[in-house]
Amino acid sequence: SCCLFLYFISSEERHLRANDREFNLSFKYANNAIKTSKYNVFTFLPLNLFEQFQRLANAYFVFLLILQLIPQISSLSWFTTVVPLLLVLSITLAKDLSDDITRHKNDNHVNNRKVEVLINGELKSEKWMNVQVGDIVKLENNEFVTADLLLLSSSEPLNLIYIETAELDGLVSNRFIKYSISILYISGEVRCEPPNNRLDKFTGTLTMRGETFALDNERILLRGCTLRNTEWCFGLVVFGGPDTKLMQNSGKSVFKRTSIDHLMNVLVMFIFGFLAFMCTILSIGNAIWEYQEGNSFITFLPRADGANASLSAFLTFWSYVIILNTVVPISLYVSVEILRLGNSYFIDWDRKMYHVKSDTPAQARTTTLNEELGQIKYIFSDKTGTLTQNIMTFNRCSINGKSYGEVVDFAGQRVEVTEKTEKIDFSWNSLADSKFCFHDHKLVEAVKSGSPEVRAFFRLLALCHTVMAEEKTEGELFYQAQSPDEGALVTAARNFGFVFRSRTPETISLVEMGVPTTYELLAVLDFNNVRKRMSVIVRSPEGKLTLFCKGADTIIYERLHPSSSKLMEVTTEHLNEYAGEGLRTLALAYKDLDEDEFEKWKERHHEASTSLEDREAKLDTIYEEIEKDLLLLGASAVEDKLQDGVPQTIEQLAKADIKIWVLTGDKQETAENIGYSCNMLREEMKEIFIVAANTAEEVREELKSRLLGKKSQVVEDEKVDGEYGLVINGHSLAFALQKDMQLELLRTACMCQAVICCRVTPLQKAQVVELVKKHKKAVTLAIGDGANDVSMIKTAHIGVGISGQEGMQAVLSSDFSFAQFRYLQRLLLVHGRWSYLRMCKFLRYFFYKNFTFTFVHFWYGFFCGFSAQTVYDEWFITLYNLVYTALPVIGLSIFDQDVNDRWSFQYPQLYAPGQLNQYFSKMAFARILLHSCYSSLVLFFIPWAAMCDTVRDDGKDIADYQSFALLAQTCLLIAVSVQMGLDTYYWTAVNQFFLWGSLSVYFAVTFTMYSNGMYLIFTSSFPFIGTARNSLNQPNVWLTIFLTTILCILPVVAKRFLFIQLKPTINDKVRQAKAVPPPLPRKFPRRRISTRRSGYAFSHARGYGDLVTSGRFLRIPVKSRPALFPHTDTMHTETLDNKITY
């Protein structure tokens, strides 16, 4: 039997045997089951209640309940606390249960997927959760990869494995495999690195039959990928379940809390202290009163044995703790949950965030973070699949000095290309790709008329590449390109009559204008990041030798023959125009070769390619020798297609003073191109800093040279002269994130309008987000679509997943999700701003009405001998927050809006107050406290003065405690209701119903509870018999209510009037301008003037020309291939392309 042996030198290593479950189980490796849920049937109730009572307010109300059960100090009935507490706990229990049931369903769906596992020489169907480390599994086309696998064999004739990594990063990649073994007899040992989160790294060696082969990440197929265009493949499970790199990158679920939540905790602690202060004042007053006046009452209120002024003061303290507990009303937390849930539904139901094409609505996956959406200062975005569609389209080209691709009308004026613009009919070409679109008919006419330059242009595109062609049925071609850019160019050549059909290591087969033609492939001068060009040398059927070259225009221009100088000038103008439109440009050139010259060069090339020292440098020198005196053909322009509305969204968010950082795994040049395309980087910027050093000291020097601000531990926003941009690559970022350098990085970045980090790993993405969170007093949002964005999404205050694609890992870890990046501006500028405004208004009003309610009790203490008597009826105290004022404030908090959504887009500056915490802060809380203190003084002393020594119009006395209590509570309710009316900007039928309905309910309940019937049935519970009809039929009572209300709201109205006139806010200005409706946004074609030409990016890694010409992975296609089982002869060790892009 064959022995499979992996070895990895490490302090910790994974040791397993293939096909030996008993041995592998002894190490207790994690199986393939995943678990993202928090509770089970037995732990849900105790664990959830434990979590809820960790919230200080809930524990406080349990403490209050215990106090109320002690007769000596209980001044209120127990039901005033139990009913609200049970309501809060029940609502939270139901919400958490619903969330966890959803998580259980998702886990079960994944864990119960089926896969075929090789057990005792037979393939058996197993659930994913039962797959063990060391098992050999068989995957079939379009199946998800079960676990992290070492690839063993494939069904493909060319030994290709095609995988889609949408679950990981939204990309599609190809893999070549090379070695083969019989999977039936694998019984060797495996030693490899321990589980880790490095998606781009795997280390080990394979020892088989005395031979040793290096194993790296290219041999590993990660969980989360999908098998495409491959009938089957076999793999050995190396990591399972929570040990897979996908789950290792998911990170721990963090309970996120908003900045308002954190502020609330601080305020609640202050309120507790303030409550203790008030109770202490009143208890001291009680001790003084008992000492001075208490003896006068002993005759008819005898004291208990041992009772004295000190004991009375102690008991009074706790009695007032119960009475004044409404400064921290438990209904606040119920209302906050309802408010957040309501605003979450508005996001879910928003049709303007619904993507019709993918049938994907927006979704608020977390209901506790809505108001934080109105405070975002920094957005961290992935690029591929988030800003771009990862679709390249051939848009323009310049051939022999003539530009093609622009559509003009009869007057010669440029016409914007839309879906209605007439497309070229490629029906004359039976092999054309039906999905390819082009609109300039002049190019087709030039091809058909036999223009030699145009035909040479497309012949170059059809020959100079490393694309693989797949033709499963006659005439149906599928191109597998190592990057979308190459695929777009080869597809363009295909549609214009130069069809790349197949290749072998020695030949390239084309169909040129319907005529099959085979070129002999003599050499591939491959692309890399230094050369920035690629060339092929081919021999035509006529025996003519030609070198075709494509690359960055600056590189090609340096190698042109002087005869191309005039053409170069014209082509440069065209390149500038294309770059101005944000397209990615590429220059094309060729050279006819002499046979003798080529043979001599070929010998030198062979020597360099077999050299053991400095092979790369020698090959580059050899390539330079032949890639000179080229003749320019023209240039191509490809659009890296952005998602719809990306530039406009970024522009709107920038106007709202939101800074956007792009964190991408792409190479620097590609990232810069996208930066320009979506208006993050602009030509008018004063300077764009590039940090690309390879050592810590060099990075430090580059950052210091850019650093203009002062040094301090707290990084504040600094004003700089002009706009700057920053581009930093992954190597430099790794050094810059070190503790001694990260503040310099952050200061430099914060002075820049746009920041792009390229070639970053998932871990670095999270580190950048954490750096800003730690040192900036700002709210962060991360948005992405792949598993490589999960850590970043979980680290940020708000995580947004792009849904509607096959990759759903980011969505499952996110707080909000939608299908397109452009919906982000509506999420923030409309829903986020409204949610923040509503929450702040809710909190201001809620604290105002409850402090006012409580302070009246405080003032009354000075008139009742500090006896802890309530100023209101007990039933009013119970129903005040639960019934009388609950619905109006919820209506205000769910439906209110200062301006509508169109005005919110028209004036993005309206977003700024949220970033600065202007609507609710410690200072705002202090103002509420003072306002409540004033209102409570009015609400107590005006009714007190009005009732003192007052009689009815029939001469009867109404100056009793119950009449005063009724008047005080009626004044309070009407005053806070009018105050809420002043705070309401947007009236709806629901608001009106809640407000007037609550007042009606108050009077209905009052007259019912104070009736004779209720007193007769429940004498002890309803003692206020006849009070309502005795007091509320008196004109002086209503005059007192009117006067009290006017005095309460007069300072508020006066202050607002003066501030609007003298110091108006942006909201005031916009609301005053609302008389004129905002103009509809005008749409302009995206076009910018630029002198910068984007260098074309061939791929994210070195090309694969050596593999294309080596023949190591290519076989002669056969008509049929026997099934793999029970014997196969292929095993994976070579790859065509990177699986994951960083």
TrEMBL record:
It catalyses: ATP + H2O + phospholipidSide 1 = ADP + phosphate + phospholipidSide 2. It is an enzyme of class 7 (translocase). The keyword Ribonucleoprotein does not apply. Its EC number is 7.6.2.1. PROSITE patterns: ATPASE_E1_E2. Keywords: ATP-binding, Magnesium, Membrane, Metal-binding, Nucleotide-binding, Translocase, Transmembrane, Transmembrane helix. ATP binds at residues 382-384, 486, 527, 550, 584, 664-666, 759, 765, 788-789. PANTHER family: PHOSPHOLIPID-TRANSPORTING ATPASE, PROBABLE PHOSPHOLIPID-TRANSPORTING ATPASE. Residues 17-82 form the P-type ATPase N-terminal domain. One of its GO terms (cellular component) is plasma membrane. It is a multi-pass membrane protein. InterPro entries: ATPase_P-typ_cyto_dom_N (IPR023299), ATPase_P-typ_P_site (IPR018303), ATPase_P-typ_TM_dom_sf (IPR023298), ATPase_P-typ_transduc_dom_A_sf (IPR008250), HAD-like_sf (IPR036412), HAD_sf (IPR023214), P-type_ATPase_IV (IPR006539), P-type_ATPase_N (IPR032631). Its cofactor is Mg(2+). The active site is at residue 382. Mg(2+) binds at residues 382, 384, 785, 789. This is Phospholipid-transporting ATPase. Its main location: membrane. One of its GO terms (molecular function) is ATP binding. GO terms for biological process: Golgi organization; phospholipid translocation. Belongs to the cation transport ATPase (P-type) (TC 3.A.3) family. Type IV subfamily. It is found in: Membrane. The chain crosses the membrane at residues 76-94, 266-289, 309-334, 842-863, 875-895, 928-946, 966-986, 993-1017, 1037-1054.
